[in-house]
Amino acid sequence: MKNKNILYLLGSGRSGTTLLATVLNSTSSIHTSGELHQFYTYLKDRSTCSCGASINDCEYWSLILKDLNLSTKEIYTFEKKQNNEEFHRYIPFILLGKKPSKDYISSQENLFTSLTKNNDKNWILDSSKYIARFLLLNQIPSLNIKGIYVVRDVRGVINSFNKQVQTPKKPISTIFYYLLTNFFGQLICWLNKDVVKLKYEEFIENPQATIDQIYNKLLGYNHGAISLEDNFIIPHIIGGNRLKRNKTIKIKKDIAWKTSISRPKQVFYYLLCFPFMILNKYKI
Ligand SMILES: [Zn+2]
User: Is the pTM of this model over 0.90?
Assistant: First the structure.
């Protein structure tokens, strides 16, 4: 049986993770599954996969569902357990030794066993970004989990959350969220040698270097050149942002915040997040 190898994306939302996950899916060893913390909620609500079909009818996910063969009761139990245990407020408790429940462990093990079995790549990419989920999965001995922590200039994140699309956030709540996700993301990155940190802006500038960094540092081998002219095909993902409704994505620079946020506000937001801005070498 194949090892259950998981690459886990950490960092704040709107940091280009859907794009990164899609580009990684085009490489030889990585299969992108989307935000797996939503898997059981998707099942409960019969939500739609990025391909447009309901998760129950999607050609990819229906294979997984057939494999898992879950009863309605199990779906409800697993969904509830997962949402409870992965809640942000438990992060400090998990860091201090709180363990995942039996139901949590078996539901995640079964999911990753099925995902691993149903594709020919060696690594499953989970773009959940939830810190508590990363810490809990990390405690399950049968899972081999490595992290990719993505940082982005807070003003790019604010600008993206400010667009009136799904789940808009006001600048101040974005800043709280940014400080929280980056505090723990950075902490995990310092404590865990199997986590690589990369910058959204550097990925957009030089995607090949980022892919090489992930392959060399986490997977332990080199990957050939990726084709940058291509539109990258979006796989069957759950969760993810509005980009996923397109069939393909292009790598494109998004620096709209430099013109759409006034200069005084740019400086103000920078100062509120200054430890991370300085640590990650962003200019004011
Ligand atoms: Zn699908």
Answer: yes
Q: Where are the domains of the chain?
A: 4-279
CB neighbours of residue 228 within 10 Å = 12
Is there a contact between 10 and 134 (Cβ–Cβ < 8 Å)?
A: yes
In the structure encoding, which two tokens stand for residue 132, read together? 């508590």
Confidence of residue 164 (pLDDT cuts 50, 70, 90): low
Residue type, 279: L
Q: Based on DSSP, count helices (H) and strands (E) in the chain, helices before strands.
A: 14, 7
Question: What's the CA gap between 3 and 130, in Å, rounded?
Answer: 23
CATH code of the domain made up of 4-279: 3.40.50.300
> Which residues have a Cβ under 8 Å from the Cβ of 17 and sit 6 or more positions away?
9, 11, 127, 129, 150
Residue 249 alpha carbon to ligand 1 centre in Å? 16
Taking the centre of ligand 1 as the mean of its atom positions, its distance from the CA of residue 127, in whole angstroms, is 16
